[in-house]
Design goal:
Length: about 325
């Protein structure tokens, strides 16, 4: 971030009870660069989730009129902030948010993340978000949310979404309710992130988000909210049908040709998705394993609901 070609700016790091050397590293950097400031995170108040509380503390420390909320596990190219500031000014939007390149390293990241990424990309494509007129059709990516101080206050700040697990989605809806537009763009060449570092981390993260985020995506629509687990399960289970039919053809030979054809088409489809995410295409051969894990995450997320949310060493109970 310090290589950004936009000036002037400040970098405020909210150290939300980290157990690694975050505070030490940031303190060392700030002693050499006056643009960096460390904010030790205060104790989490009742009724708050950790992310919105950390964001609000960063806001209170900020002095600029343009605010950027971004995650510590993102890598920014020097032209990212200049482009985003220009987009904020020229589009008249309340929020500029982006979809970065998603780095997947391990086997399970490369077979599970495409399943979820396709689901999100289908539900919230930038072209649809940018012309949305209803709160149910907007989203923001908490990894990168740029807004003006004035609009942030108008939307109620992160305090308005303090009890939301998918606080970025809820914040975007608050902006829409306030009559403010969201401008969403693909920016794979300007930002990169690795969301999860393995299977256990991946399951924990998406178990937190999928069910509650799915319900939040249909505000004020209880019937659709109730159908979210069914829709998510069908979306993941759909891709398991061809390989299951192929297995069934061992006892029902008439199924073999259609099952083989459907499975091959599915593999080719997921090879295309893998290539679009810059993953080796041969991981598509293992797509049934990714779909099975994704289905398990949906069921686990639904079963837990809001009653038990675990993330970053904290356990939240409703």
């Amino acid at each position: 971030m310090l290589r950004s070609r936009y000036t002037p700016f400040e970098v405020i790091v909210v150290d939300d009870r980290s157990t690694d050397d975050t505070a030490g590293i940031v303190s060392s950097l700030s002693s050499r660069d006056a643009r960096i400031r460390l904010v030790p995170g205060e104790e989490l108040p009742p009724g708050w989730y950790g992310k919105p509380w950390a964001c609000l503390q960063g806001f209170h420390a900020a002095t600029g009129e343009t605010l950027l909320f971004t995650d510590a596990d993102t890598v920014h190219q020097p032209m990212l902030v200049p482009h985003a500031v220009a987009a904020l000014a020229t589009t008249g939007a309340g929020i500029v948010t982006i979809s970065p390149h998603l780095s997947c390293v391990t086997f399970w990241e490369r077979v599970v993340m495409p399943q979820v990424w396709l689901l999100l990309g289908t539900r919230y494509h930038p072209a649809a978000v940018n012309r949305a007129t209803r709160a149910r059709d907007v989203i923001a990516n908490g990894q990168f949310i740029m807004t003006s101080r004035e609009d942030y206050l108008k939307a109620g700040t992160h305090e308005a979404v303090r009890s939301e697990v998918a606080e970025d989605l809820a914040l975007a809806q608050r902006y829409a309710d306030a009559g403010l537009r969201i401008w969403f763009a693909f920016a794979e060449n300007l930002m990169e992130t690795r969301m999860y570092t393995g299977l256990a981390h991946l399951i924990e993260g998406w178990s937190k988000n999928l069910y509650l985020g799915g319900r939040r995506s249909f505000p004020g629509e209880p019937v659709l909210q109730a159908l979210v687990p069914v829709a998510l399960s069908l979306a993941m289970g759909f891709w398991l049908v061809p390989p299951l039919m192929l297995i069934a053809s061992l006892v029902l030979p008439s199924l073999f040709l259609p099952a083989l054809t459907a499975t091959c088409i599915s593999v080719l489809f997921w090879a295309g998705v893998s290539l679009s995410m810059r993953n080796p295409p041969w991981y598509a051969l293992a797509y049934p394993a990714g779909a099975a894990v994704a289905l398990w995450i949906v069921l686990r997320s639904t079963w837990r609901g809001a009653g038990r949310v675990e993330w970053k060493g904290r356990t939240y109970n409703s």
